[in-house]
Amino acid sequence: MCSTISMLQDCKTIVIATVVAALTTHLWLKTCDPVPFWAAAIALLTIPSIATFIVNAVIPSSMFSLTLAYPAFYLALTTSICAYRLSPFHPLAKFPGPIIMRLTKLWGAWVAYQGQAHIYIKQLHDRYGPIIRIGPNELSTVEKELIPQILGNQGMPKGPLWDGRRFGNAGNSKGYDTLIDLRDSVLHAELRGPWNKAFGAEPMKTYEELLIRRIVELNDRLKKACSRGTAQVDMAKWPSCFTFDLMGDLAFSGDFRLMENVDKDGRLEMMDKAMFFMSITQHLPWIAMSVRSLPIINNWVMKFMNYGIEISIKRSQMEFKQKDLFYYMGEACGRLGSEFALIVQNCLLAIIAGSDTTASILSSIVYLLLSHPDKYKKLQQEVDRFFTEYQIDLDAQQAASDVVAGKMYGEVLGRLNYLNGVISEALRLFPAVPTSLQRAPAKGTSSKALQLGNTIVILPEGNAISVPPYAVQRDPRYFSPYSEEFVRERWFSSSSSGIKYVTSRDAFIPFSAGPQNCPGHSFALIEMHYALAVLVKNFNMEFDTPDYNPVCQWPKFVVTAKPSAKYQSSPDPSLSCESRSACARQCSITLLPGG
Ligand code: HEM
């Protein structure tokens, strides 16, 4: 009897000891968030041993052993964390969202791994409402009224997601990092200066010349690919090679030659692997650096970083050709008292941020046009008229000499109504950054109050909020009717169809908004105008497979590009310019094998 009582007392002591140790650990993790991964790991490995030691010192005959201590401690800690996250005491408790997401960000990482995070977040908003909880400490909102308060001048600095996306070394000795990862608003504003200068009016002229040369090359290479009449062209890969080469020119005055050798060195794959890793670790910032040191992951990231170092060294030894981003970053680094690594990382950022994004929009546009042949035709008509009016012949030499003569068309292309509408509608339906616009209250501010109508939403420090462009831009409150469909007419001020469109430009955020928005957005728009105009003017495209299914195949799709007939034979000179191009396309259809 006595021994049973003493055993029960021992058990009680053990349970109390374990619970106290677990609660103290939870409190410490919560208060000091983010605790460095190594510190958390050491604590989790040692605390049960320490608890065992103390219990055994207090009750020498206790049966509290290490084999019991570890599972008991982890169980108590997990229970405590889960209970708190689901409890009404959590500051985000009143916001709806799936239980699994309230409990852990591992779920978000899993969804990202499957590549469908944007669709999933939209479905959650459809189901739970405009402000939802998508992590233990994270909200997501599609309320456009909140956008300026989150992303705008009165908004917040970047959120913890950026700690998990960091690809460089975590900041240099002065605290600077790549622009996109900088969470400190003051440092961010300082580094944003050279970026803004690099995309000012003067440099943009140089970039447009570089762009035209690359457009001419793209046109030329596709033309060669179609020299037998038609060609199967991978419309995910070609735009990627084109934008990668172009960003190489802009950032490093580089000669990357991806279009020339169809990326035989696997640069795109190298970048994609590094980016894929980051799209997952952004959900688990506290573990990102440790995961990054795993050999296979480290290999991916270091391969990309070493590539950056290699091209930076090459660039620094190059004779001065033109003011590129490397030049502007170098100029600023002297002023900011910073180091070479910062130039390398920021120029690499230009390749990452500027190539994949623009390429993905170009692929989306081709996909949308091929799925809507009537719109494709209307766009061709507008582009044909433009080429005729400005007497542009995209024969490589002619275009190259236009550049020399300082003839550039970015501005006039920007005034083409239909083209503009197609690009805007693609950016609306398939924004290249569909989910990750995350912000969090600045350190030491304790909280951020967001006003929504008469309601005040309080976001305490230690929590974050995201604005997902994919979900916002498909919200029927802001874009209707047909919010999920490709309706470029919604961008006209008046529609001939008599349909009254709701088009909320303040909910159109493909380049984000506010002081941390995309510095390259004007250039990206010009780039897309040129590339699309040339593709539509000189090539007839159609899906390679009639049963193309974007759900399974996106973004890999192959189009059959048929060059317009002018590359095959001279059209009848008696035809007017406009009808000549129409004829050219009809002729090119006859070039189809068996067609
Ligand atoms: C269609 C093409 C592009 C799209 C859709 C796009 C979109 C975006 C978005 C949404 C952000 C903001 C992320 C945030 O608010 O947290 C961003 C940031 C950024 N983008 Fe772009 N981008 C494009 C092209 C470019 C180009 C051509 C460059 C040129 C190098 C560029 C460089 C950057 C940089 C450096 C940032 C970080 C800005 C900062 O933190 O202050 N992007 N981009």
From TrEMBL:
Write out the entry's keywords from A to Z.
Answer: Heme, Iron, Membrane, Metal-binding, Monooxygenase, Oxidoreductase, Transmembrane, Transmembrane helix
Q: Does the keyword Calcium apply?
A: no
Molecular function in Gene Ontology: heme binding; iron ion binding; monooxygenase activity; oxidoreductase activity, acting on paired donors, with incorporation or reduction of molecular oxygen
Q: Which GO terms describe its cellular component?
A: membrane
Any idea which positions bind heme? 518
What InterPro entries does the entry give?
Answer: Cyt_P450 (IPR001128), Cyt_P450_E_grp-I (IPR002401), Cyt_P450_sf (IPR036396), Cytochrome_P450_monoxygenase (IPR050121)
Q: Which residues cross the membrane?
A: 12-29, 35-59, 66-86
Pathway membership of this protein?
A: Secondary metabolite biosynthesis; terpenoid biosynthesis
Entry keyword Metal-binding: yes
Localization in the cell: Membrane
Query: So which cofactors does this thing need?
Result: heme
Q: Which family does it belong to?
A: Belongs to the cytochrome P450 family.
Record protein name field = Cytochrome P450
Q: Where does this protein come from, organism-wise?
A: Gymnopilus junonius (Spectacular rustgill mushroom)
Lineage, top ranks? Eukaryota, Fungi, Dikarya, Basidiomycota, Agaricomycotina
